[in-house]
Amino acid sequence: MVNILFIEHDGTEHKVEVDAGASLMLAAVNNGVPGIDADCGGSCSCATCHVYIKEDWLGKTGTVEPTEEAMLSLSSDRKDNSRLSCQITVTDELDGLVVTTPEFQF
User: Which of 24, 61, 65, 100 has the smallest C-beta neighbourhood within 10 Å, fewest atoms?
Assistant: First the structure.
């Protein structure tokens, strides 16, 4: 099992254990983490699963592909560590990952 810490914009923490292989978005949705709307169901056609990855984990979450880049560009609260959680596959290497949700999803 992979341990992931989701932190809401207000500081509320949600520790989840998930199997490797699913997306980070599904890990949040399946564990009732608030702040991940996932309106498109993970097809990278919206930005409602926007998260902030703790900086020291960015290199382990993969690269931002052009479609994800386009969706992230729609977010008014994008940061350097912004990612769409539907585009990150949970792997054993991500055990201990820390993710923060923005105040609003667009």
Answer: 65
